[in-house]
Each structure stands twice: as C-alpha cells, then as structure tokens.
C-alpha cells in the first residue's frame, strides 16, 4: 500500500511531490504517480525515485491518500476510469480548480473527500493552500493541513465556496506576482538598465518585500504600513504610487480576482 498516489503527474503534482519528499513527509517508495505521458513518468522516476504507472486503477487501489491532479476538463473521464477501483479506506484529495465535492461523490460514491487549492511555490517549501473537507473527512483534514503546512502555509476554510476565492487569490496568485516581476524587469530595461541587473534587482526586491511583510506581520505591522514607510512625502515612491492609484490598480486587481473566481465556478460544470 502506498501512502500517497498522484493521478496526473503535471506541474502541480510535481510541486507537491518535491515538497513532501524534501520535508521527508513521505519516502519515495511510499509514493506512486500516474500519467498518460511517459515523459512525465520518466521525470518522476528519475528525479524523485517514486514509483510510476500508466494505470490509474492500479494506483487507486493501492493508496491511502489519492491526490487527483489532472486538469478540471479531464476530471470526469479520470473519475469514471477509477470508480470502483479505489481502496475502501482511501482519502480522496482533489486539487482541481472548480471541481466540486458533490461532482466527485456522484461518480466515485461515498468517500472522505478533501479539496485543496495549493500553489506552485510549494516546489520550494513556500506554498499557500486552502483546504475544505466534506463531513466524512473532518478528521483527515488536520493531517492534510499538516502536510501542506510542511510545504508552506495552509488554511482550512469553512465553506466550499471559499475555495473558489482561494483559487483566485493564492492558486492563481503566483502568476500575478510573476507578471509584476516581468513588467518591472521590462520597464527597467526600457529605462536603460541591462537585463541581468534588472532581473537581479527585481527578484530580490520581490523576495525582500515578501520576507519583510511576513516578518512584520508577526509584530502586527500591515503591508499598508510598510508601504507608507517606503513612501517619503514628495519623493519618488509617492510619485509612482500616484500613477497606480490614478489608473485604478485596486480596481484592476479586484476585477481580475472576480473573473478568476467566476472561472473557477464555471469549471465546476465540467
Ligand atoms: N498549476 C498550478 O499553479 C495549479 C494547478 N491546480 C490544479 O492542478 C491540476 C493540475 O494542473 P497542472 O499541474 O498545472 O496541469 P498539468 O497539465 O501540468 O498536469 C496535468 C497532468 O495530467 C496528465 N493527465 C492527463 N490526462 C490524464 C489521465 N487520464 N490520467 C493520468 N494523467 C493524466 C497530463 O499528462 C499532465 O501531465 C488542475 O486541476 C489545476 O486546476 C491547482 C492549483 C495551482
Ligand atoms: O489556472 C488554473 O486554472 C490553475 C488553478 C489555479 C492555478 N492554476
């Protein structure tokens, strides 16, 4: 029996597998990963030493925790393929955006099911995950929270609808920060700095800002207060921030996150 099985060995499954192995939550021989792609399976076998298989049913029947890590659009087919072949005592954990627990239960029958919305920084132990458990999985939720806390930070939410918000916030969120980094690097180049210097300073600034915000949070200091500390009256930051405000940066962020949340709800129809 494997401790954890991953159906779909894509980007997000790799982030979780790498994270849990690094933190020694599981040993490589306690994990099995399945995929339709031999290339992906070779990568898991070679880079992480875990067992791999093309057979979703074989993995499903031998796992204590079964992580569903395929795209939402392929989830119906995947669930139909493994229904009836899952170990009776298994915990089902879906990381798919939008796929609701009742959709999973309809196909698989009654199981403890947990939805987790992780994110790719789990790759380096700095993930952020939201967790929602159905009634049958309340006991297992604490264990899973510990797993995701070991590869970042995890928050258990009270309602399944909140998972759609978590998806728009921390699931998709890394991409928002990466976009900001891309634009800052490109802008610095446009203004005359060389690419390597622009990249080094951008990445270190993003890292420094995140680290300072986390450290300061322990003392109750908010990001808004930290922003004020950078902003000298009549200085350069104030001049820059006025442009963000004039062009409604806050409204753009809200609009983007609302659309992401709606997309998550739409995916539940798949
Ligand atoms: N990438 C991200 O940042 C995040 C992704 N997610 C969720 O994680 C899930 C996976 O996303 P990614 O890893 O980005 O996608 P991906 O495309 O990298 O991985 C999906 C994998 O599933 C495999 N696959 C397809 N059909 C299969 C089948 N029938 N049986 C076994 N494997 C099959 C594909 O070959 C692929 O390797 C999605 O449902 C997504 O909503 C959740 C949080 C963050
Ligand atoms: O873009 C997506 O649909 C997935 C879910 C959250 C991050 N990536």
From TrEMBL:
Keyword Cytoplasm included in the entry's annotation: yes
Binding site for NADPH: 56
Gene Ontology MF term list: pyrroline-5-carboxylate reductase activity
Intracellular or extracellular location(s): Cytoplasm
Highest taxon in the source lineage: Bacteria
Key words of the record: Amino-acid biosynthesis, Cytoplasm, NADP, Oxidoreductase, Proline biosynthesis
Swiss-Prot/TrEMBL GO biological process terms: L-proline biosynthetic process
Catalyzed reaction equations: L-proline + NADP(+) = (S)-1-pyrroline-5-carboxylate + NADPH + 2 H(+); L-proline + NAD(+) = (S)-1-pyrroline-5-carboxylate + NADH + 2 H(+)
Domain Pyrroline-5-carboxylate reductase catalytic N-terminal: 4-98
InterPro entries from the UniProt entry: 6-PGluconate_DH-like_C_sf, NAD(P)-bd_dom_sf, P5C_Rdtase_cat_N, P5CR-like_CS, P5CR_dimer, Pyrroline-COOH_reductase
Segments forming domain Pyrroline-5-carboxylate reductase dimerisation: 160-267
Assigned GO CC terms: cytoplasm
Documented EC number(s): 1.5.1.2
Known pathway: Amino-acid biosynthesis; L-proline biosynthesis; L-proline from L-glutamate 5-semialdehyde: step 1/1
Residues the record lists as binding NADP(+): 7-12
Primary role: Catalyzes the reduction of 1-pyrroline-5-carboxylate (PCA) to L-proline.
Family according to the record: Belongs to the pyrroline-5-carboxylate reductase family.
Name of the protein: Pyrroline-5-carboxylate reductase
Source organism of this protein record: Limihaloglobus sulfuriphilus
Highest classification ranks of the organism: Bacteria, Pseudomonadati, Planctomycetota, Phycisphaerae, Sedimentisphaerales
Gene that encodes it: proC
């Amino acid at each position: 029996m494997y401790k954890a099985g991953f159906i779909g060995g894509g980007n997000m499954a790799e982030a979780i597998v790498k994270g849990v192995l690094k933190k020694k939550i599981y040993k490589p021989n306690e994990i099995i990963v399945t995929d339709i792609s031999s290339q992906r399976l070779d990568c898991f076998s070679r880079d992480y030493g875990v067992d791999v298989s093309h057979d979703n049913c074989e993995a499903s029947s031998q796992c204590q925790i079964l992580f569903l890590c395929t795209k939402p659009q392929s989830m119906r087919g995947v669930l139909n393929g493994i229904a009836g072949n899952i170990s009776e005592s298994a915990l089902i954990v879906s990381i798919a955006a939008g796929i609701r627990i009742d959709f999973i239960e309809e196909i698989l029958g009654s199981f403890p099911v947990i939805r987790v919305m992780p994110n790719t920084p789990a790759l380096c132990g700095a993930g952020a995950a939201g967790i929602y458990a159905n009634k049958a999985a309340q006991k297992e939720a604490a264990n899973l929270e510990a797993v995701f806390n070991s590869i970042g930070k995890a928050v258990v939410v009270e309602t399944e609808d909140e998972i759609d918000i978590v998806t728009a916030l921390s699931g998709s969120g890394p991409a928002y920060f990466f976009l900001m980094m891309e634009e800052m690097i490109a802008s610095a180049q446009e203004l005359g700095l060389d690419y390597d210097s622009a990249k080094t300073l951008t990445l270190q600034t993003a890292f420094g800002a995140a680290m300072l915000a986390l450290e300061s949070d322990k003392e109750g200091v908010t990001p808004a207060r930290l922003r004020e500390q950078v902003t000298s009256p009549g200085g350069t930051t104030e001049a820059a921030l006025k442009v963000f405000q004039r062009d409604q940066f806050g409204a753009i962020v809200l609009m983007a996150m609302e659309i992401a949340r709606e997309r998550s709800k739409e995916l539940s129809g798949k």
